[in-house]
Amino acid sequence: MKNIIVIPARLESTRLPNKVLLDLNGKSVIHRVYNQCIKVKNIENVFIATDNHQIIEHCKLFTENIIRTKNTYVSGTDRIAEAISKIDCDNVINVQADEPFIEVSLIEELVGQLEEEDIQMVSAMHRIKLLDDLLDPNNVKVCVDNDKNALYFSRAPIPFYRNGVVLQNIPEDLIYFKHIGIYGYRKQFLLKYSKMKPTYAENIENLEQLRVLENGCKIRMIETISQTLGIDTKEDYHAAQQKFNEQ
Predict the structure, then answer these.
(1) Do the beta carbons of residue 125 and residue 223 sit within 8 Å?
(2) Residue 138 covered by a domain
(3) Residue 80 forms part of a structural domain
(4) How do 220-223 and 121-127 pair as beta strands?
(5) Which CATH number do you get for residue 72?
(6) pLDDT tier for residue 79 given thresholds of 50, 70 and 90
(7) Residues with Cβ < 8 Å from 152, sequence gap 6 or more?
(8) How many distinct structural domains can be found in the chain?
(9) Which of 74, 73, 105, 82 lies closest to 6 in space, CA to CA?
(10) Which residues, 6+ apart, have CB-to-CB distance to 32 below 8 Å?
C-alpha cells in the first residue's frame, strides 16, 4: 500500500496568530512537525497543504512537497482532500501543523491499522487522569464502543457521571479519554468525506470528526499513552519552548 502524510497548515489562528511559523529552538513549529513525519516508516512521502503564501515561502526552505489549496476551507480534512485528489496513494495520515512533539511511533501505529484492518478512518486517544483536563473545553473527549469505534466526540466531559462530583484525581473505575487530533483515512473515504455537508453536531461542537459519525460512518480509535503537546495558546508555546530547553 502507498501511504502518505499530509500536514494541513493555515496562518490564521484566533488564540495564537502565526503559530505554525513561531520559532522553537531554531526551527519553526511546522518545520519541527515535518521533521517528525519524515522519520515515519512505510511512508511514501510527506506533503504540506496550505493556502498561505507566507507558509509556502517558509516551507520551501526545507521541502519541495508543498501543495497550494483553496482558501475557503474551515477544516484541515477538507483541505487535505483537495491536496490528495491527484496523488497516487491508498492511505493518508493527517498530522496537525501545531504538533511539534507528535510521536513517530503513534503515526506508525495509525499506518499499521490502515494496512492491516478493514477500516476507513482511524484516530487516537489517551486516558484522562486529572479533573482539570476533563473539564477543559480545549481538550476534546471521546466515548467508544466495545470495539474501540468512536461513539461521540465532545468538548464537554463525556460520559456524564451522574452519581457525584470528582474532586481532583479521577478514580480508576471512571474511564475518560482525550482525543488526539491525528487521523488516518483510506483515500477513497477521504474523498467521500469531503463531499459530505457540514452537520448539526459538527457545527455545534466545532468538531469536524462528528461529520463522519453523523453520516453513519465509523472512526476506529487507538488507545495510546502518548500525550502530545499541541500549540494552541501562548501558554502552550511557552511550555513547548521549555520542553525543548530541557531536552
Answers:
(1) yes
(2) no
(3) yes
(4) parallel
(5) 3.90.550.10
(6) confident
(7) 142, 143, 158, 210, 213
(8) 1
(9) 82
(10) 24, 100, 101
Residue 159 inside a domain? The answer is no
Bridge partners of 121, per DSSP, are 185
Counting Cβ atoms within 10 Å, is residue 98 exposed (0-12), middle (13-18) or buried (19+)?
buried
Please, what is the Cα angle at 183 between 26 and 2, to 5 degrees?
A: 90
CA–CA dist 210, 163 (Å, integer) = 28
Residue 168: how many CB atoms within 10 A of its CB? Answer: 7
Domain assignment of residue 100, yes or no: yes
> Over 43-107, what HEC string results?
CCEEEEEECCHHHHHHHCCCCCCEEECCCCCCCHHHHHHHHHCCCCCCEEEECCCCCCCCCHHHH
Name the residue range of residue 200's domain: 3-123+179-230
> In the Cβ-directed half-sphere of 137, how many Cα atoms lie within 13 Å?
3
DSSP, res 130: B
pLDDT above 60 for 5? yes
Please tell me the pTM assigned to this model. 0.92
CA-closest candidate to residue 154, choices 87, 102, 206, 85: 206
* Confidence (pLDDT) at 128: 92
Calculate mean pLDDT across residues 28-40: 96
What does the alpha-carbon distance between residue 73 and residue 150 come to, in Å, rounded to a whole number?
25
Q: Take residue 113 and report the three cell numbers written for it.
A: 491499522
What size, in residues, is the chain? 247
